[in-house]
Amino acid sequence: MSSSGAHLGPSLASSADDVAWGLPVEYQLAVLTALEQAPLPVTVSEAAYGLIGSSHHVFAGLARLLDRVLAVGLPAEGEDVWHLRDKCWQDR
What we know:
mainly alpha
């Protein structure tokens, strides 16, 4: 993961937020901590963050969700996907 901070350019989020490539160190640490117990090795090679819409909590939750989906697959039912997402956001 890089913390370059170079402007991302046009994107869906860039109309409402200032989006940059890489992750600040605080977000990098949240992702790495969330993936410490990952059953499968996960490499995050690219990321972007917004000044308004990002937080270490969001990136940690996304890392846990990615880890669980890669390990066991995406739940078949849409409602189960939301339950999994909620669990990943609540885990710390």
